Amino acid sequence: MNRKLYITSLMVVIPLLLVIGYLVTDQYKSWNADKQPGKKTSLLHATRGVQAEGKTMKSTASIAAIGDILLHDKVYEDAQLGSQFDFSPMFAPVKEILSQPDFLIANQESTPGGSEIGLSSYPLFNSPKEIVKSLQETGVDAVTTANNHSLDQGEEGLLSAIDYYEKISMPYVGAFKNPEDQENIRTFNVNGIKFALLSYTYGTNGIPVPEGKDYLVNLLDEQKIIAEIKKARTMDIDMVVMSLHWGNEYQRFPTDEQQRLAKVLTDNGADIIFGHHPHVLQPIQTLKTSDGRDAVVIYSLGNFLSGQKDDFKDIGGMAKVQVEKMRSPAGAVITYPSIEFYPTFVAENNYKNYRIYPLDFAQKNGFISYTEDEMVSHMMKGVPQ
């Protein structure tokens, strides 16, 4: 009986010892292999490497712009409170709309040189500095300053405005205080999407740029613009956004020259162009560039706040471009899932109580006969072929 139990025990124990010995030996070999140079690899590390290698990351941001801020005397007189000016009530009806984009650009057309050098209206504008603070409080993140009125008050007015921009930390581009300022390309990072912002004008209403001070305002020189776009493209950015002061005043569609230049600049690296100067709305167009990118051109955003009236000059709006960046090991691709336009109307009562209203509100309350659908259709249907 004991002999049978002994033999049975051996038959169980011996195979068990063999299995344990095998496992110990295998574990030692594995440990010893890990000790060899260049062999520190584990299943966990290998799996993580594969996951990282195939990872795709998405970033989104909305970049928007509003049209001309061109302060005629009736407008700034309506904002006057003693020796100060408050434009915020004028923007109040559209503040909710303007707060929507992740980044908002305004075209500051009349130079805000301030009361200290004398306020003035057409044809040589000089505006209260407080307009810039009101824009900032309303949601504007940067102003473009290259336009035909940049030198209305000469170098003095331009530098006075820049001093105020810097005082309240409002980014500006298009007119500059010195060569170093002009050379400093403005870049922004919005939700992980990085872009450069450039600004140029066709001219300065015949006012010559002071000799040796070409840096004061960026003029629309095609080859110089292409060179600056290419310079920006060497920086750590995903996109180039531009503001162009171009086209013919009061024409509701772009000229052939605007369309030609838009194609040239987008083919050379521009991604979004916000247009100004016509004082009326001109359509939005999407382009396919020669290197296969998508580009967006808004030919004109009209007047956002001005004293001009009738014939579409009191209709403006905000164009908002939704930008999506897909980053993978192969690189980053920029697309535009949506482009939206929000039309606005500048209302007043005998040149008092200036207010910017959503166009739909203005039409339903009898300020204007044009509907929101009409203006959105005008902008979104593109350029007639």
UniProtKB/TrEMBL annotation:
<keyword id="KW-1133">Transmembrane helix</keyword>
<dbReference type="InterPro" id="IPR029052">
    <property type="entry name" value="Metallo-depent_PP-like"/>
</dbReference>
<keyword id="KW-0378">Hydrolase</keyword>
<dbReference type="GO" id="GO:0016787">
    <property type="term" value="F:hydrolase activity"/>
</dbReference>
<dbReference type="InterPro" id="IPR052169">
    <property type="entry name" value="CW_Biosynth-Accessory"/>
</dbReference>
<feature type="domain" description="Capsule synthesis protein CapA">
    <location>
        <begin position="62"/>
        <end position="308"/>
    </location>
</feature>
<keyword id="KW-0472">Membrane</keyword>
<protein>
    <submittedName>
        <fullName>CapA family protein</fullName>
        <ecNumber>3.1.-.-</ecNumber>
    </submittedName>
</protein>
<dbReference type="Pfam" id="PF09587">
    <property type="entry name" value="PGA_cap"/>
</dbReference>
<dbReference type="InterPro" id="IPR019079">
    <property type="entry name" value="Capsule_synth_CapA"/>
</dbReference>
<feature type="transmembrane region" description="Helical">
    <location>
        <begin position="6"/>
        <end position="25"/>
    </location>
</feature>
<comment type="similarity">
    <text>Belongs to the CapA family.</text>
</comment>
<keyword id="KW-0812">Transmembrane</keyword>
